[in-house]
Amino acid sequence: VQLQASGGGLVQPGSSLRLSCAASTNTFNMRGAGWYRQAPGKERELVATMTNIGSTNYAGSVKGRFTISRDNARNTLYLQMNDLKPEDTAVYYCSVSWSIDTYWGQGTLVTVSS
């Protein structure tokens, strides 16, 4: 299984980005999925998660600004990020679990700076 993350870039504060995570296998039967991020000098932290039935959970710092979603027809997980702030700067990783196995994408860099 491979996960290909994309969509990162350099944006100004207040901007929006949508990250994508394309899976090489079906996402309709995933156990769960999530987006995580790691800022320079900090530990990786959870950003958002989604269960197989679509229940979502968000870190307090992104709640109301970020939205996790998936498109099973495209086997793709998304993270819509609105009103980006400099503190959102990090490498973002997607993670998807099937059965007992968890897979990670390679990370995509998001830089929020004026």
In short, what is this structure?
With 114 residues, the chain is mainly beta. The protein contains no helices and eleven strands.
Intertermini distance: 37 Å
Overall pLDDT confidence: 95
Low-confidence stretches: none
Strand/helix succession: EEEEEEEEEEE
**Percent of residues in β-strands:** over 45%
Q: How many E strands?
A: 11
Number of helices: 0
Largest sheet, strands/sense/barrel: 7 strands, mixed
Shape, principal axes of CA atoms: globular
Structural class: mainly beta
Helix share, percent: under 10%
Radius of gyration: 13 Å
Topology record:
Elements: E1 3-6, E2 9-11, E3 17-23, E4 32-38, E5 45-51, E6 56-58, E7 66-71, E8 76-81, E9 90-98, E10 101-104, E11 108-112
Parallel strand pairs: 2-11
Antiparallel strand pairs: 1-3, 3-8, 4-5, 4-9, 5-6, 7-8, 9-10, 9-11
Keywords:
mainly beta
Molecular structure report:
The protein has 114 residues and is an all-beta fold. 0% of the residues lie in helices and 54% in strands. It has no helices and eleven strands. The chain has strands spanning 3-6, 9-11, 17-23, 32-38, 45-51, 56-58, 66-71, 76-81, 90-98, 101-104, 108-112. Strands 2, 4, 5, 6, 9, 10 and 11 form a seven-stranded mixed β-sheet that branches. It has a four-stranded antiparallel β-sheet with strand order 1-3-8-7, with no helix packed on it.
